Amino acid sequence: MTQPSAAVPPPAPLLEVRADFPVFAHRPELVFLDSAASSQKPAAVIDAIAGFYAHDYANIHRGAYGLSARATDRFEAVRDQAAQFFGAPSRDGVVFTRNATEAINLVAHSWGQVHLNPGDVVLVSELEHHANLVPWHLVTGGAARGWRRWR
Fold first, then answer.
1. Counting runs of H as helices and runs of E as strands, what totals does the chain give?
2. pTM for the full model?
3. What is the pLDDT of residues 26-46, one digit of tens each?
4. Which of 5, 24, 27, 76 has the fewest CB atoms nearer than 10 Å to its CB?
5. If you ran DSSP here, which 8-state letter would residue 10 be given?
6. Whole-number Å distance between alpha carbons of 35 and 32
7. Distance CA 116, CA 113 (A)
8. Residues forming a β-bridge with 150
9. pLDDT digit string, tens, across residues 80-132
């Protein structure tokens, strides 16, 4: 019987990235593969969220008071940063959602219903998560109207 090989340490760049995430500092052996459902947060994100909740939390785009205006300004500044990071022409092309499922539904039901025509095909692989299959199936009307599963 062969002996199991010794664990190979991760490459240095991966260790540098892991250092940004408190969960890995507390559990260095952790390998987290459930990012589709929930992702671990780096310390900078945790700190920013905690700071916002502690000092600036208010409704954005709704309140006519100083705290709401400040929250709105911070929100829009992040949209500007995201637009620049992704190369979008402006923040108007940046929409934040709670999760990937909500984002896919938003795209399928807003963009898809406007831009997909009879005979168009939405091609997805068998590896897709259920949350990326159902919205396209609904928008295309199923197999009768352009639903194809790539095998």
1. 7, 2
2. 0.68
3. 898 888 887 767 889 999 999
4. 5
5. P
6. 7
7. 6
8. 125
9. 999 999 999 999 989 999 888 899 999 999 998 889 887 788 888 878 888 88
**Residue of 79, 103, 74 lying closest to 91 (CA atoms):** 79
In the block, residue with structure tokens 């010794």 = 6
State how far the Cα of 57 lies from the Cα of 38, in Å rounded to an integer: 23
Count, residues in the chain = 151
Closest to 39 in 3D by CA, of 98, 109, 80: 98
Q: How far is CA 37 from CA 100, 102, 123, 126, in A?
A: 8, 12, 23, 18
Please give the Cα distance from 123 to 35 (Å, whole number): 23
If we measure between CA atoms, which residue out of 110, 112, 95 comes closest to residue 146?
112
